[in-house]
């Protein structure tokens, strides 16, 4: 039985595709694990305000900081869904708008949105997510300012 060049190329292509899929799945597992660690830390700080106190921005009341951390927890969960390509396009815009209906989420974005934008620089997925959140914040702020 003679193996043709086409058959060899097909097997090589399938093998290469499988390696690419494995790499992508490993990257997704890494993203989930890093997000879990971050979200666990946020939950730990919200559950132990005395520990959150040392991380609060200068002049910010620890109770306020804990509330902002809780909003950040929700935003991180949606960010992970976006990174894993579960929440995209119109659905991402809908969720961002829904989050920004919450006054604490708007206070979080007012305080830390620029930091998140800086952190997202160079990561197209993070930049897209941050832009959706920025637009939702700006749109909601226009009709319902922070503190209202």
TrEMBL record:
Give the Pfam families listed for this entry.
DUF6082 (PF19560)
Which InterPro entries does the protein's record reference?
DUF6082 (IPR045728)
Top-level division of the source organism's lineage: Bacteria
Q: What is this protein called?
A: DUF6082 family protein
Task: Give the organism the record lists.
Answer: Streptomyces mooreae
Taxonomic lineage is: Bacteria, Bacillati, Actinomycetota, Actinomycetes, Kitasatosporales
């Amino acid at each position: 039985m003679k193996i043709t060049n086409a058959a060899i190329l097909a097997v090589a292509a399938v093998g290469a595709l499988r390696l690419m899929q494995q790499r992508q799945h490993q990257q997704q597992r890494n993203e989930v694990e890093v997000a879990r660690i971050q979200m666990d830390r946020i939950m730990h700080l919200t559950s132990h305000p005395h520990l959150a106190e040392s991380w609060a921005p200068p002049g910010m009341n620890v109770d306020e900081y804990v509330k902002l951390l809780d909003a950040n927890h929700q935003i991180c969960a949606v960010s992970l869904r976006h990174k894993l390509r579960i929440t995209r396009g119109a659905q991402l815009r809908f969720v961002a708008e829904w989050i920004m209906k919450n006054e604490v989420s708007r206070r979080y974005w007012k305080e830390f949105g620029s930091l998140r934008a800086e952190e997202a620089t160079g990561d197209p997925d993070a930049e897209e997510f941050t832009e959706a959140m920025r637009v939702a914040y700006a749109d909601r702020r226009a009709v319902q300012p922070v503190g209202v």
